[in-house]
Amino acid sequence: MKFSADNLVYPGIFLIILLSFFTFSENFFPLLTSDMAVNILMTPSFSLPHDIYFWGQDRSGNLIPFITHYLYTFTGWAPVFLVSVVHYLVLTAGFLALTRFVKSGYGRICLALIWFFPPWHFLEFLLILYGIQASCVLLALNFLDRSFGTKVQWKCLAWLSSSCLMFIVAVWVSDMALISLFALLLLGSLYYLLTFRDPVKLVVRRGLLVPAFIVAFWLVAGYLLLHYAKSVSTPVQIYNKGFLADPVSLVSTVKIVYNSVIGVFLFASESSIESVYSWVLLLSIPLMWISKNKHQMTRLKITENPWFYFFLFEAILTLAAVIFSSWVAANGAGRRYFTTFFISAWISLIIWLENAPKNKWKTKMKIILAIVVVIGSLSGCFRFYYPQIKPSRIRILSAMRSMGDIGIIAEYWNSYLTASPDPVHIKATPHDKDYVRNPELATEVFLQSRIYLIKDGWLESFPDSIVQFGRVLKKRGNSIHLADSWLNRYEVVKK
């Protein structure tokens, strides 16, 4: 068999996924947080409809705990391991769905690095729900494209139904998936207008009555399901103040984004490698523009490659929605909200490059963009391996398992995280003046045989007594240092 570079594409992708798993998955990530740990804590006790959304809110559907709960019930394996594996299986499924739209080995390798090793500022694509949202959207698009590609009606309708169902899951996981639906609607409308007078396309459109009925059915079903899910969840007022930010909040968002971008270009961010990545990417834009003009590259037609325009529309609409969003402003314009824009923009760029005519300028652009992608990937993971390999947070926290059945009260970022190595035997909650996502878990803390307080990020020192959740706790014994935290035992003296 003749060997070619294409033979290395899928082994290369597999290696990238494996390295990413051992760097960023919950079981190995050195900077695991309480937000990430909630999925782990939900796994053993997950129940519907109580846990249909992330604790304490009516957004962010719990797809990962939904799947891992049943695996945990069947296998009894550690929740953190199951969450890690399922999380990466979903991310991998989403990436494989993307390969339907990106044909070249070059494009697939580049996007594998972008997807599984994003730059430092976009790491939260992997760590929280946005990668799951993007994976669900890509699976839905993959199914939709398959429905267009088959002439057997029942297969067409089956793929179409699968696509609609996956879009419902995507919107359940994250409301931002509605932007993808809007981009798809915009693409469909433009495609229809441009092919309106095409007699071949006209014949095809006459057979759309049954598919239209299927889509309408799933649209109603999706609305009813999501409406029910929100009705049984905890409403969050910040989400219900309207979509558009007021002028002051809008200016604040733009200022935060501007300062963050300038900080990266001035080598003032957390990763100097990312600053190099940003400069190389910025300087490559003129080269692409010169190449386009010099070689008179034809513009991609929407009728020839509609998916390029979908990802382009999605990127533009996502950026606009994030900038003008009231809840993004209320949450400090966190970089996590820009991760799906980043992914969509890169996908559209890779598809555009794939369809560019072959010439020496295209070759140069491919080399430059490959360098950009590699530098960006290094910016996101380099600090975890140099100057020393950072241990996983779970490995450090596993020392807590030696304590047996305990309850823990701590500051939010130390609370749920501390219970993540063994959420069956360790119950944890933020203190009563902090963000308590699940009041029922606070009750479970007081049912444990021993209760400990963690002072880090909360108390200057351990008081002799303290009131928590209406109970008086009295200090017992001396403090201990365990799992990189200071703890002290307390007993309930009054209920």
Account of the protein in words:
With 495 residues, the chain is of the alpha/beta class. It has helices at residues 9-24, 34-45, 63-75, 79-98, 105-116, 124-127, 129-149, 153-173, 177-194, 199-205, 209-231, 247-265, 272-294, 306-324, 326-330, 339-354, 360-381, 393-397, 412-419, 439-445; strands at 406-410, 426-430, 450-454, 465-468, 471-482, 485-494. Strands 2-1-3-6-5-4 form a 6-stranded mixed beta sheet, sandwiched between helices. A hairpin with a 2-residue loop joins β5 (471-482) and β6 (485-494). α8 runs parallel beside α11.
Number of helices: 20
Q: What spatial order of strands do you see in the largest sheet?
A: 2-1-3-6-5-4
User: Radius of gyration, rounded?
Assistant: 25 Å
Tell me about the biggest sheet? Answer: 6 strands, mixed
Shape: globular
Helix/strand order, N-terminal first:
HHHHHHHHHHHHHHHHHHEHEHEEEE
Beta-strand portion reads: 5-15%
Q: Residue ranges: pLDDT <50 for 5 or more in a row?
A: none
Q: Give the integer mean of the pLDDT values.
A: 90
What structural category do the secondary elements indicate?
alpha/beta
Strand tally is 6
- The helix content, as a percent range, equals 55-70%
Instruction: Please give the alpha-carbon distance between the first and last residues.
Output: 76 Å
